[in-house]
Write a structure and sequence with these properties.
Distance between the termini: 10 Å
Oligomer: single chain
Strand content: 5-15%
Radius of gyration: 13 Å
Shape: globular
Mean pLDDT: 90
Low-confidence stretches: none
Structural class: alpha+beta
Strand order of the largest sheet: 1-3-2
Largest sheet: 3 strands, antiparallel
Number of strands: 3
Helix content: 40-55%
Length: 99
């Protein structure tokens, strides 16, 4: 499974780490029709040892830049940002990692 992730992320020019895996796994298990994680909510769900919030945000920025995740302003509250997998990346995950 790790090798599948490495291949998938190498296509997007990302060096994978455990924090990224944790983020991607949590976002993948949240179904597309379910409410998306908020930034803080996702951070609180991350396994221990917890990174600093700035390190966490840097990892999210890397994933967003590579078009793996989308960070959008929440529909419920303008000051809240929601995080979810990009649809094409979700399809790649299901095809390459979970097939």
């Amino acid at each position: 499974m790790i090798d599948s992730y490495k291949r998938l992320f190498s296509k997007r020019k990302i060096t994978i780490n455990l924090l990224m895996l944790d983020i991607i796994e949590r976002l993948h298990h949240k179904l597309p029709h379910e409410a998306h994680y908020g930034l803080t909510e996702l951070y609180e769900e991350i396994s221990h040892p917890k990174p600093t919030f700035s390190n966490y945000r840097a990892q999210l920025l890397t994933l967003e830049t590579a078009k793996c995740i989308l960070i959008k302003t929440s529909k419920e509250k303008a000051s809240k940002k929601s995080v979810h997998l990009a649809e094409d990346f979700r399809k790649e995950l299901e095809r390459d990692v979970y097939a």
